[in-house]
Amino acid sequence: MRNGKFSMKKQLVLMFVGTTLLIYFSLAVVLQYAIDRHFYAQDYSHLLSKYNAITKSDLQNPQTLLSAIANSPAYLWLVKDGKIIDQNSTITFPSKQLIRANLQGVNSKKAIEWSEKSLRIRAFSFPINNSYLLVIGISINHHYKLLSELRLILFGPMGLALIASAAYSIIIVNKGLRPISTLNQHIRKIAPNRLGIRVPLDDLPIELQILATTHNKMLDRLESGFDRLSEFSSDIAHELRTPLSNISTQNQVILSMPRSKEEYQETIASNLEELNRIIKTINDVLYIAKAENSLIHRNDEWLSVRGEVDRIVDYFSILGDEHDLMIETSGQAELCIDKNMFERALNNLLSNAIRHAQIGSTIKVDIASQANQVSVTVSNLGEPIPSEAILHLFDRFYRADKSRQYTGSVGAGLGLSITQSIVHAYQGEIHVQFEQGYTSFIMVFPTTSA
């Protein structure tokens, strides 16, 4: 027992022992009561037969009645006007019982019981001709002796029953809790470097299989989170190391010998460019963290989605012209959203589409409005995304080119991650689909009131 609390094993043992004793005791009491009631009914039936035998005589004649009482083997008392006028034994009829007999009258099924020395009497009262009250009694010592022996038989072994039930309960509780011990052994093996351990379900009962399944799913999420955290650490280290290495190398070169004013200016400009790259990466990571934890201040308002899309497309048209790309928009909708967040999400998708679109193709921005949601789809014609990369498209710093030597991309691999965080901040969804050579990123926002 720790901190005043019993272990579950002790609680189960005590509950089992307590329940066993309660059932045993209840059955013993019910059995004793049933036997006592049986004797009671038997005594009443026996004395009623005595009464019927006596009343066969001519009870109108008091002498005949007194003669019948005197010759009866049972204990009889003849009562009139609340007083005993005759009896066939020397047993004293208590005054309290006499009053009770008179009060009962015709309700003779209620017994009158009392003790005199070592004799226990049970009697019933019967009316005669509305003038007399005949009380007939019998010794019930033999009943009490049998009931005493029965109590000894029933309640005597209770201590033995307590010991037996405790021993049996310990056995079955240990056996019943053994799967929990097995589960505990597997859980204790888990460590940060051993997250691949899973609890086997075959040998567990159904109740623990549900718990083990939930536990295994939790480990799946933790393992995935640890893997992502490890990759994130590696990725962010790489993203920061490259510009810092460039800055360090350039400074070492420029300081190796006297330089002209123009060379110093070029080096400072190059260093500033690398520093801006670092600052942008850090700001993007912080933005994702804030968005995922609802820490971004949102200024939601009703916007014309088509109007915002057209404004952003006009800005990207210049970049599209450089790659001989057309950008088309279609559809109408209204959405309650933060203008800057929507603009940032769409900017990321459009810049991504332009970067990967085939030269001379058309990028499509489709807006669709339904009863409970608004969708914005950005599609471009280009090389299909490898199947192994689809599951990781929205991971931070993810690039299909693991060597990170793809010169066509100047970003850190955070654009899609930021877009997903913005969409999720509005309880929306974003997914990718491929159709007829087009890669489509679809943002779905639920419609809410401002």
TrEMBL record:
Name of the gene this protein is made from: VV20992
Transmembrane segments: 12-35, 121-140, 152-173
Segments forming domain HAMP: 174-227
Protein name per UniProt: Sensor protein
Functional note: Member of a two-component regulatory system.
Enzyme class: transferase
Repeat as UniProt keyword: no
Topology versus the membrane: Multi-pass membrane protein
Single GO term (MF): phosphorelay sensor kinase activity
Record-linked Gene3D superfamilies: 1.10.287.130, 6.10.340.10, Histidine kinase-like ATPase, C-terminal domain (3.30.565.10)
Enzyme Commission number(s) of this protein: 2.7.13.3
UniProt KW Disulfide bond keyword: no
Residues covered by the Histidine kinase domain: 235-449
